[in-house]
Amino acid sequence: MCFALHALPVAHANYGGYGDCDPGFPMPGYDATQMAPPDEMHTYDYDPLSPDVRSAQEPSRAELADIDDKDAVRGNADTLQGMKARWKKYVLAGGPKPWEKWKTAYINVLQNRRIGPAFEKFLYDGWELGKLPPEAGWQTNKQLPKNILPNGPVFDIFNIADSVPVSKWLMIEAKSGTTLGTHARNQFVDHVKRMGQLGSSLMVMFAGRPTDATQRWMKQTIDDLRAAGIKMPPSFCARYTPAKPQEKTDPGSAAGNSAPRPAPDPVLDESADSPEDQALQDQIASGLEAEDNPPEQPVPGQAPANAPMPVGANPAPAPAPQAPAPAPQAPVPAQPPALPAPQAPAAPAPPRLPAPALPAPQLPAAPTPPRLPAPALPAPPRLPAPALPAPRLPAPALPAPPVPAAPAPPRLPAPALPAPALPAPAAPAPAVPAPAVPAPAVPAPTVGVPVSASPGPFGGIDFTSLEMRYVTDSVNGKPAMQYAFSANTLPVTEASYGGRRNAKMAMDAFYVWLALPPQNFWVNLKPTEPDRIIEAAFGRTEAGEVLLEADLEMKLVSARLQKTDTDLGRRFVAAMQGNKCYLGRRLWIVPQPAEVHEDGYQLYILDTPLTVKIGTDQSDVTPGTDLCQDQDPAVTDHNGQLYQQMIMPALIDAVNHNPDFADLRRVYTSRVAAEWYRKRNANKPTQYAKLIDSGNIDDLTVAWDPRAVWERYLDSTKHPEPTFSWTDAKGTTWTRSWGGVDFSKVETHDIGAPEFTQKYDSVAKTAGPSIIGPLVQNNAKQVWLGNVVSSVPLDQIWPSKLSPWVPFVAPATAPSKPLFYLVILPAVAWLGGGGYLLWRRRRAAGVR
Questions:
Q1: Is the distance from CB of 512 to CB of 480 less than 8 angstroms?
Q2: Sign, CA torsion 643/644/649/654
Q3: DSSP output for 693-709
Q4: CB proximity list for 397: less than 8 A, separation 6 or greater
Q5: Are 233 and 200 in contact (CB under 8 A)?
Q6: CA gap 674, 483 in Å, rounded
Q7: I want to staple 119 with a disulfide (CB 3.0 to 4.6 A). Which of 176, 535, 702, 800 is the partner?
Q8: Which of 2, 130, 118 minimizes the C-alpha distance to 804?
Q9: What is the pLDDT of residue 268?
Q10: What are the residue ranges of helices labelled H in 93-139?
Q11: Could you tell me the residue range of the domain that residue 536 belongs to?
């Protein structure tokens, strides 16, 4: 994804195939539009967070009162003391008070702040840029030279230096994920403007193939900035180096004794559950970023040197750098308001206001870099550095050539991705700046911020439909599981939240299905059986909660389908005879055979249908008026048959497609994967051998009360809404249903290799390869997101190292000290004189 930003007009810009980013030397990694080989993966280590931070409990009022605001200082954000101090600042600032939401967002930001720099170091060290001579100019995690950009922000990797020609300058922004969140997008815009002013090329290097939504956003933003008259960098590249992070572990530690866990997944880990949660996460990230990069004290009448650059104008050169002013004194804190009780109910989310436009970047013009005059003697001939890109296999550009489209599983159809020219306005988020509403694809120059807006970095993915549909029992012969989630696509402008929640639900359910015996996987709602709602251990898990809630929802849906405010309900009631009575019935959800394909060590889960079973009970009519007693039994049977013929198909369809049952479908698909693992483990032990039937669910429990769900169900039997009621001259009567969900048995049907190749070839080409980044199936209806769970360090699975990268290296200039020339001048004269005498002698001898 290479943009030559000056060569072409907006309407004809080439955003397509692979390019060299015009810096004059080969680029590492892969272009964003290319597919890396799925077996090319690298790993890097990052420092884990303190267990004290991860297990932190909400501070009491007394604890908060003892915490000083000054405890929230630069550098201690990842300590327990620093965490609590920032929680106090958040509480006193009037933020909503649910501790767990804030803690989840805070820890996620802290982890990202560790993974990001680790990826940056991985690139810099792996490319061996630090081994290049100093005149190459390559540096990492530093500010630019002050004569080029005084007091600017810290940049990841760059060669912007006086020793390097401006035409060869390159700034590399390292991104450890495959998306750009709100903060990263603001940073991207600022970098484009700064590099445009400096005349440096810009490259964003991701750790996986960037999502389609991210690529579209970058393209649109580049268009908007250029159309607004912003001075652009000579070129821009979006590339990626496939790499997975892993926590550092001490040799001999007990880390390997716990159940295997997934590697961090930037796409899903950063997908908040709601716009409010996303805003909170962005607020925390921005606050910590501001702590790391405090604004410089401005010279009177001059904007701070590291402020964002003004939009719509190219500023005049800034004056020479000033010595930094003394740091401002901390203001005397005001008397804090009374602290609320930590356990108070969460305050309602503030009203969602329109997203504010990005503040006009205030980057002052960097002074024109002073260039020293060339030394008296010419430099030696410049020898270009050898081009030595990292070896890689040829990678075809995406999308892949047309192949037979795989029929989507029987889920709600997802619309095809629309053209990305007109993204919708961003979902507003309180307190956190969001990109402004974009102009059309070729907007007229404006003074406002021309940044494309989008509903966040995850547009185009319907996380509500996310399910585990690909697993392996090993990776490169090691005890690990590669897996991939499948989700429906959305129009790229449509926001989607909940990826982190739903991915965790699917993974936790997978572990529960392994740890507990299958005979425990049932739930039951019946008024007369309050002590047989759910098996005790299963009742401590989220999977158990999902099944019980789905059972109650099924009964509510059955009732809604029979109401006369729907077309189906009107036809059903009209078709019933007599007193329009039928007997109460038992309804329970069970799996149908799942459609799969097993290919060696891989399992593709293609379809996981569910159905609803029905039974009757003569005694199940609410006490009171019993119209069925006065009704011909044949009519009662007839009415019951109508229910099975008219209501049951709609109920089964709802269980398989309605959003209300998405969690049930999600945990059931994980049940299919777990059952396959159980069978594989019986023949050959896998990494989950110790977990299977162990009963160890200590890390998989959630707080919920099965009895509370049963009481809601019991209450529903006393009201007509959740069952079915009718009224005639004799009074009102309603029947009720009961039953449960039973996942104790799972059957699968392998469709075989020929049918799989014919119908699901695009699944084979995207499910496994999605380990390098989210991939969209050729039918544009499914997106795959891959990851790995390993019992061994990831570098044992993927031991390959990055190849050194030899970019442009400026040749050393001739020394400029006069003493140097005084020393070598006699030697030069001697060599010159000797050469002349030799020539004269050979000429006199007649030698030509």
A1: no
A2: positive
A3: T----GGGB----HHHH
A4: 16, 17, 18, 31, 33, 34, 35
A5: yes
A6: 12
A7: 176
A8: 130
A9: 74
A10: 99-126
A11: 522-664+704-743
Answer with the one of 743, 768, 791 that is the final residue of a domain: 743
Asked if residue 150 belongs to a domain, the reply is no
736 & 835 share domain = no
The half-sphere exposure of 724 on its side-chain side, counting CA atoms within 13 A, is: 29
- Give 750's strand partners: 596
Query: Minimal CA–CA distance to 366: which of 429, 425, 320?
Result: 320
H helices of 127-170, where? Answer: none
Tell me how far apart the alpha carbons of residues 88 and 381 are, in angstroms, rounded to a whole number: 63
Residue 824 placed within a domain: yes
Give the pLDDT score at 80. 94
Residues of the chain with pLDDT > 90, as a percent, come to 45
Tokens of residue 814, six digits = 């001739």
Structure-token match 């449509």, residue found: 494
**Is 379 inside any structural domain?**
no
Instruction: Identify the top-confidence range among 221-235, 238-252, 367-381.
Output: 221-235
Q: How far apart are CA 753 and CA 706, in angstroms?
A: 43
Q: Please tell me whether residues 845 and 732 are part of one structural domain.
A: no
Q: Which amino acid is at 821?
A: Y
Q: How many domains, in total, are found in the chain?
A: 2
Q: How confident is the model at residue 696 (pLDDT cuts 50, 70, 90)?
A: very high
Tens digit of each residue's pLDDT (9 = 90 or more) over 466-505: 999 999 999 999 999 999 999 998 876 677 788 889 999 9
Distances (CA, A) of 431 to 185, 252, 293, 671: 17, 46, 20, 41
Same domain, yes or no: 728 and 832:
no
Lowest mean per-residue pLDDT among 146-160, 265-279, 430-444, 522-536? 430-444
Cα–Cα nearest to 114, from 218, 213, 44: 44
Backbone angles phi, psi at 588, to 5 degrees: -145, 150
Could you please report the per-residue DSSP string of 267-330? HHHT--SSHHHHHHHHHHHHHHHHHHSPPPPPPTTS--TTSPPPTTS-PPBPPSPPPPPPPPPP
User: Is 482 contained in some domain?
Assistant: no
Q: DSSP labels for 744-768?
A: S---EEE--HHHHHHH-HHHHHHTG
H or E element, residue 133: none
Domain endpoint, select from 727, 743, 759 = 743
Whether 841 and 710 map to the same domain: the answer is no
Distance of alpha carbon 208 from alpha carbon 210, whole angstroms: 6
> Does residue 357 have a pLDDT over 50?
no
Residues 632 and 534 in one domain: yes
Average confidence score pLDDT of the chain = 76
